[in-house]
């Protein structure tokens, strides 16, 4: 990028230089944005300074250096301390928080930033560190649409797919948390399945082409895509298979796991959820009726 083009790019400050924060700062530097960095441990700024960033000694200095402050730290408590530490230097600026938090904390942060005269946008990073800055990167944002629109060009420097989810500041982290649960549940099912076939001598390499390359993309994903109308409308026709049928199969999974000498934790959970779905009156409907049980408040 030539110097004139770089000069026209908006300055950015990144606060928090752990592995992810450092990757964000590096992406801004590499795209030519004048980039200021701050970290509680100043030594972490040195590689970025060598790369072309400017190191701010204090939080007010860091916040005052750019119209946009990007925060990437471990949790909301740390992000909150950065916002409070920057204080009045945030007036007229925008805070984009890419730290781990909860929906409630994201909503609270809007008022916290506004108290210092700053606009606020919450976001989540959906990819590992090494993807930042590249086309595979994915970021979710939520909160004020005008704030998002105003900062979008700068945020695109982080690479990849940038998605605005809605006006509720808690939406980005809510999606992130939901997707983590989906990832873990999928991984748990796969690991149990691999353990089960492993009792017959099949390796993970033997099983993966069937379990991952065929079942998920060819069977599971199309079924789930096709079920979106059922879920949204709350109508669960059982013509293609009922909860009761799945409960019978879950019994087989549980007994086979026990007979093969492996853990029954995963199939016990599945059977329990299917039984709860039957008890809730959805036994003759499709498997998707289970969402009505999941939508209920936690017991106890």
Overview of the molecule:
The chain is of the alpha/beta class and 300 residues long. The protein has 2 domains: 3-169, Rossmann fold (3-Layer(aba) Sandwich); 227-294, N-(1-d-carboxylethyl)-l-norvaline Dehydrogenase, domain 2. 54% of the residues lie in helices and 12% in strands. The protein contains 13 helices and 8 strands. Strands 3-2-1-4-5-6-7-8 form an 8-stranded mixed beta sheet, with helices on both faces. Helix 2 (19-30) links the parallel strand 1 and strand 2 (35-38). Helix 8 crosses helix 9 and helix 11 (243-259) runs antiparallel to helix 12. It starts with a helix and ends in a 6-residue tail after the last helix.
Helical content stands at: 40-55%
What is the structural class?
A: alpha/beta
CATH topology-level name of the largest domain: Rossmann fold
Number of strands: 8
Domain NADPH-dependent reductive aminase-like C-terminal: 168-296
Organism: Streptoalloteichus tenebrarius (strain ATCC 17920 / DSM 40477 / JCM 4838 / CBS 697.72 / NBRC 16177 / NCIMB 11028 / NRRL B-12390 / A12253. 1 / ISP 5477) (Streptomyces tenebrarius)
Protein name: 3-hydroxyisobutyrate dehydrogenase
Keywords: Oxidoreductase
Features:
300 residues; alpha/beta; Rossmann fold; N-(1-d-carboxylethyl)-l-norvaline Dehydrogenase, domain 2; 2 domains; eight-stranded mixed sheet; 12% strand; disordered N terminus
């Amino acid at each position: 990028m030539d110097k004139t083009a770089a000069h026209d790019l908006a300055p950015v400050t990144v606060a928090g230089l752990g592995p992810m924060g450092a990757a964000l700062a590096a992406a801004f530097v590499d795209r030519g944005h004048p980039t200021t960095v701050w970290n509680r441990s100043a030594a972490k700024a040195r590689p970025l300074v060598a790369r072309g960033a400017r190191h701010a000694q204090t939080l007010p200095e860091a916040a005052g250096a750019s119209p946009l402050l990007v925060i990437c730290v471990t949790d909301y408590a740390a992000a909150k301390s950065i916002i409070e530490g920057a204080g009045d230097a945030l007036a007229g600026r925008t805070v984009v928080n890419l730290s781990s938090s909860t929906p409630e904390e994201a909503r609270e942060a809007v008022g916290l930033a506004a108290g210092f005269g700053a606009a606020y946008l919450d976001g989540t990073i959906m990819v590992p560190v090494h993807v930042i800055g590249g086309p595979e990167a994915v970021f979710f944002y939520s909160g004020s649409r005008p704030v998002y629109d105003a900062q979008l060009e700068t945020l695109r420097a982080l690479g990849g797919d940038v998605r605005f989810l809605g006006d509720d500041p808690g939406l980005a982290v809510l999606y992130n948390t939901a997707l983590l649960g989906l990832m873990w549940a999928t991984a748990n099912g796969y690991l149990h399945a691999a353990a089960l076939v492993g009792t017959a001598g099949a390796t993970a390499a033997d099983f993966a082409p069937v379990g991952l390359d065929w079942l998920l993309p060819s069977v599971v994903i199309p079924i789930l895509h096709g079920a979106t109308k059922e879920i949204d409308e709350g109508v669960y026709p059982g013509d293609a298979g009922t909860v009761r049928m799945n409960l019978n199969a879950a019994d087989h999974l549980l007994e086979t796991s026990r007979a093969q000498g492996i853990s029954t934790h995963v199939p016990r959970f599945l059977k329990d959820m299917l039984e709860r779905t039957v008890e809730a009156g959805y036994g003759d409907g499709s498997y998707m009726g289970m969402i009505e049980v999941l939508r209920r408040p936690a017991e106890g």
